Amino acid sequence: MRYKYNARTQQGELQAGFVDASGKDAALDILRGHNLFILSLDETGGPTWYERAFGFLNRVKIKDLMVFTREFSILLDSKVSLGDSLRILETQTHKALLKEAVHEVYEGVSAGLSLSQAMERHSDIFSEFFINMIRPAEITGRLDQAMGFLADYLEKEALWVSRIRNALIYPAAILVLFGFVSLFMMVYVFPQLEPVFADSNVALPLITKIFLGAGGFIGRWWLAIILLSVLFIVLIADYLRSNEGKIVADELKLRLPIFGKLYKKIYVARFAEATSILIKGGVPLVQGVEIVGHSIQNSIYASVLHEVSEGVRRGDTLSALLTANPDYFPSSIGEMVAVGEGSGRMDEVLSKIAVLYTREVNDILSNLIELIQPALIVVIGGFVGLLFASILVPIYNLTSAF
Fold first, then answer.
1. Do 202 and 348 lie in a common domain?
2. Under 8 Å between Cβ of 271 and 284
3. Which of 15-19, 249-253, 395-399 has the highest mean pLDDT?
4. Residue 270's closest CA among 400, 368, 129?
5. For residue range 78-135, what is the model confidence (pLDDT) as tens digits?
6. Domain housing 328
7. Sheet with 37-43, edge to edge strand ranges
C-alpha cells in the first residue's frame, strides 16, 4: 500500500512525501528508520491493476538514471554548486519524468531541504539505496565521491541489463518470425491442401492431422484467440506486479536451469558491491544490509537479507549469517567476509567479492550469447523439419499411389 506522510527531521524541518509498505506499521518502521518524527500518516491506496500492469511504460530507465548520476558527479567534481548543478541537469535531461523530478528536487533544495530529503519525495525514481548513499555524504562533504560511486554502480547494472537484453533480442526476433511463418502455413497453406488429401484417401501422418486441426481452429476462432491472449497477458502482467506475483517470479528465477545460477551470481555481486559502497559512505553495517535487501530487486534475497540484518543487530557476525544461507550465498562468501571482519577491511573485501562475481557473471553471459544461436538453429530446424514433413510426406504418399 501507499501512504502519504508528514514528518519532521531531527533538525526540525518539515518533510512530506509518500512511502510504499505492506502495512501502516511497516510504513512507520521505514520512516522511523530515516530518523523522522511522524506527524501524520494516511493511506492513499495502492496502484490500480492498470498501473501495475502497464507502469513499466512510464518509468525512468536505469540507463537514464545512470547518465544523470554520472553528469551530476562530473559537475560536483568540477566544483559547480549543488543548485547550479541541478539547474544544468534539468536543462540537459530529456526524459520527461526524470526532468520533472529534477526540477522538483531543485525547488526543494532551493527551499532549504537537503538533497537527500528532496530526492526522498521521488522514491519511485531514487531508490532507498540511492538516498542512503547521499545522506551521509552530505554530512561529510563527500557528495561528489558518493555520486561517483553511484554512477559506477548504475553503469555496471545498466551494462548487465543491456547485455542480457541484447542476448535475447536476436532469438526472440527469430522465434517471432518463425511463429508468423508457421501461422501462415497452418491458416492458409494447409486448408488448401486438405481437400486434395481428402479426395485421394491418403493416410495422413499424425503431425499433419495436428497442423490441419490447428489451422482450422485458428481460422475459425482467430478473433476470440486474440482477445483471450490479450486478456491473459494483461492478467499475468497484473499478477506478476502484485506482491505474491513478485515472490513467485523471483523464486522461479532462482530455480531456472542455467539462468538460476546466473541470477544468483548477479544478486551476490549486487549485494557485495552495494554493501561495500554504503560502508565506504559511512552507513552502519546493519542498516546497509537492510538497505541492500530493499535494493537488490529480488524479494527472496530481500527476505534473507532482512533476517541477516536482524542477526547482525543481535550481535551475530555477518560471515556466520551468510554461511547459514548456502542456497543464496556460497560458503566461500562467508569465508571471505570473515577475513574482512578480522582485518577490519570489510568494504575492501566486499569490493573484491563484487569484482570476482562480476567477472563470473560476464563470463556466463558471454557463453550464453555464444550458445544461444546454435541452440536456436537446432530448435528451429527441428520445427521447420516437422512443418515441411507434414506436407511432403502426404504428397509423397499421394504420388506413390499412382
1. yes
2. no
3. 249-253
4. 129
5. 889 999 999 999 888 888 888 988 998 888 888 888 888 888 888 778 887 788 778 7
6. 169-402
7. 14-20, 2-8, 37-43
Contact residues for 132 (Cβ-Cβ < 8 A; gap 6+): 116, 278, 281, 283, 287, 288, 291
Task: Tell me if 300 is assigned to some domain.
Answer: yes
Torsion angle defined by CA atoms of residues 273, 275, 277 and 281, in that order, rounded to the nearest 10 degrees: 180
Task: List, for residues 320-339, the tens digit of each pLDDT value.
Answer: 999 999 999 998 999 999 99
Same-domain check for residues 241 and 386: yes
Q: Dig out the grid coordinates for 322 from the structure.
A: 551468510
Four-residue CA torsion sign, 14, 147, 86, 138: positive
**Predicted pLDDT at 44:** 67
Phi, psi of 36 (to 5 degrees): -110, 145
Which of 46, 66, 82 represents a domain boundary (last residue)?
46
Whether residue 360 is contained in a domain is answered as yes
Contacts by 107-115, CB closer than 8 A, 24 or more apart: 109/82, 109/83, 110/83, 112/13, 113/13, 113/15, 114/138, 115/82, 115/143
Q: CA-CA distance, 318 to 276, in Å (whole number)?
A: 13
Q: Which residues lie across from 17 on neighbouring strands?
A: 5
Let me know whether 30 and 178 are in one domain: no
Grid cell listed for 397: 504418399
Q: Are 31 and 177 contained in the same domain?
A: no
Q: Is 2 strand, coil or helix?
A: strand
Largest CA distance in the chain: 97
In CATH, what number is assigned to the domain containing residue 390? 1.20.81.30
CA 328 from centroid of its chain's CA atoms: 18
Q: Do 104 and 121 contact (CB within 8 A), yes or no?
A: yes
Query: Which of 46, 66, 83 marks a domain boundary?
Result: 46
| CA gap 214, 279 in Å, rounded | 60
DSSP assignment of 102-147: HHHHHHHHHTT--HHHHHHTTTTTS-HHHHHHHHHHHHHT-HHHHH
Number of domains in the chain: 2
56 assigned to some structural domain: no
Give dist(CA 22, CA 1) in Å, integer: 6
Please report whether residue 94 resides in a domain: no
